[in-house]
Structures are given as C-alpha cells and as structure tokens.
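Input:
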Amino acid sequence: MSIFTPEVSIIIKEARPEDAVKLIEYTKIVGAQTDNLSFGKEGAGDTPEVEEFIKRIGSDSKSVMYFAWKNDDIVGCANISSMKRRMSHRANFAISVAKSEWGSGIGSALLEKCISFAKDNEIEIINLDTRSDNFRAISLYKKFGFVKIGRMPAFSKINGEYIDADLMYLDLREKSNNRRKIEAFERLEAIRRENKKEIDFNKEREEAMNKKHKIQP
Amino acid sequence: MSIFTPEVSIIIKEARPEDAVKLIEYTKIVGAQTDNLSFGKEGAGDTPEVEEFIKRIGSDSKSVMYFAWKNDDIVGCANISSMKRRMSHRANFAISVAKSEWGSGIGSALLEKCISFAKDNEIEIINLDTRSDNFRAISLYKKFGFVKIGRMPAFSKINGEYIDADLMYLDLREKSNNRRKIEAFERLEAIRRENKKEIDFNKEREEAMNKKHKIQP
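Output:
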C-alpha cells in the first residue's frame, strides 16, 4: 500500500525482525515528540528485545505489526495483538505516527490495514486505550467506528503526573441492522436484570446481616 | 496467615514453582465449576508453562501470587501482576476460589493480602475485570473500595456466547479527604475542558472541511 504525494511516497509494510534497529530509532523520535505513548525518549527497548517482539507478533496468526516507511525511515507504526483463550476473539490495537507526518493520512492508512487484517483473521473486537486528552487520536478512532467504554483514572504516570486514558472498542461482528437493535435491546434488558439482581443480592445480604445481629427491619 | 474453623484451617502462602502441579489440578476444578474465569475445565496450562508463570511472578518485585491451602489442596488463588514503564504504578489483580469454599472469607483474605502487598510495593492503582453479572465478586471488590470504570462488551466468549465484563480500579494513593475532593473537582473540570476542546476541535475540523468544499456556513 502506498500513499503518493508529489515528492515522496509512503509505503506500508509488515514488520520484519531485521527492522528492529530502525524501529528503535523511530520509537526514540516519537517517544521524545509527545507524551501520548507508553514510552518516552528512551524508546521501546533494546535490539534483542524488539527483535523478539517482532518475531513473536510474526509467528502469531492473529497478530500483526505494520510500519509506514518514508524512504529508509519508519514514520509510523501500528499493531494488532491477539489475546488468549476465552478472549481470543479480541485483540489490542496500538499506533504511533511521527509528528512530522501528522495530518498526512498515515494514521488512517495504518488503522485501515489493521482493521482489514483483523477482519480477515476472525478477530471480532478490537480494543485500544488512548490519553483522554488526545482528541486527534480519539477523533480518528471514532471515524473508524470505535466506541468509548470508560475513562481509566491514572492510566499512566509521566514525570510524576497521572494521565487518564479512554478505553475504546470496535465491534467487527457482522450483523444486520435488526440484529444490532435486538442486541442493543438485550443488553439494556441484561443491565436492568443485573441491577435488579444486584438490588436483590444486597437486600438478601442486608437481611442476613440483620438476622445475624438480631436487628428487626 | 490462617483462618481457623473448628475442623480445618486455611493457610495462605506465596506461590512456589513446585506448586505448579497442584495449581493446575485446582484450575481444572474451578474452571469446571463456573464460567467466571478466563479458562474452563481444561485448566490454566501445562506444568512447564505454569512453573514458568510462577517463577516470573516470583522474580518480579512488584508482582505476587498467593494460594489458600486446605490440607494439601489449593482452594483459592489470587495474584497481583505489575505493569511496565509508564504504567508501572499500576498492577492487575485476579482471583478465584473453589466453589466449596464460597462465603468462607477466603476471597476477602486473599484480596486483603494482595492489597497489602501492593501498598508495600509502591503500587498506586490496582485494576481488575470481572463478569458484569458476577455480583458476588463485584460486591467483594466494592467492599474493598474498588470503583467501576466501565462495562466492556464481549469481553470473553464462552461456547459461542459473548460475556460483558466490568472494569474496576482501586486507588491506593494516600490522600486526605480534602485532597480527594480537590482531585474529584479537578477531574470534573478536566472533563468539562475536554468536552469543550473536543467541541472546538470538531468545529475547527468542520470549518476546514467546509472551506475545502467551499461551503459557506
């Protein structure tokens, strides 16, 4: 896949273990540019670690990592990491783009590649987390259909400062519009039943406590 | 730590690699008893894998695994797993108790041990996930101060059925009551600012689009 501009083209390719050194260079650059990532200017590890990481992703049929290349440099990176056992229908998504390329469409192109990979590999739910104040990223995710689950307080800690994160998900399960409505209804019903059961459960517990302490209602 | 009953005492001890076989036996039992866990009756892996897992936890100063022993059998298990880099102030918590011991206080005892370990090891936030319909567990977590972050749809898939999970967190950062109020206020302010910025961001984007497509507002 390539995005052509008059001057230079961006090529998106799957990661190879021999790209480890280039990836580390890249993570040091993007890590220094923003505080949006899970690492800072120190980058994302040393060569053997990163090589091992790329190999592990490559050997897992439900995981993938893509790099956006501009000439000989990585300028963007995204990956899908599958989960295990009863969560193997889900995968985590992570992305970064060099600041110099923001607004160029590389983020969208990488995300599109990852969603397409997920669809082809029976991944049904994609999860991600993003700084709650990173509107640029949140706007991109919403454009692709991601929905917010909640806001996790103190998700990361950067130089002593606590940063909240939004947790989001994308539902890739194919369904008709009616199926969606039925499921939305069933979810609401489940929440209603759950609230009722919780009330019953708390009432029961309270009654047991009262009985234990011989309190008459 | 031990919980005495007239007949038999429960002993809580840190996991050792040589407990792997006992742990697998236990996970097969609890995996078959409920659909609340990340594994079923097949248990949580083979001996080398589980041994490796216990060793990894033991060698990490910010992670721990406790077993509740009844005579020679494990009847409960809980662990704290630390996170890396900018998330190293956080840890994940997981727990299971054999059905025969439900209501005996083993869950509370294991959770208390884990929280105490976390406090002693500079963990500031404990995160966990639980089936949204597991009121017994949610009630236990609330008792210890856990707060719900959100509900994750289709968190697990068991025999083709999708199960939602509640994500929760416990804030261990020491603070006065006033500090808590200030932070709650600051969080609300941040959300207000965030919403405003998002509105501004969307407005800006819309204006740019209109300009691009020569639409006059």
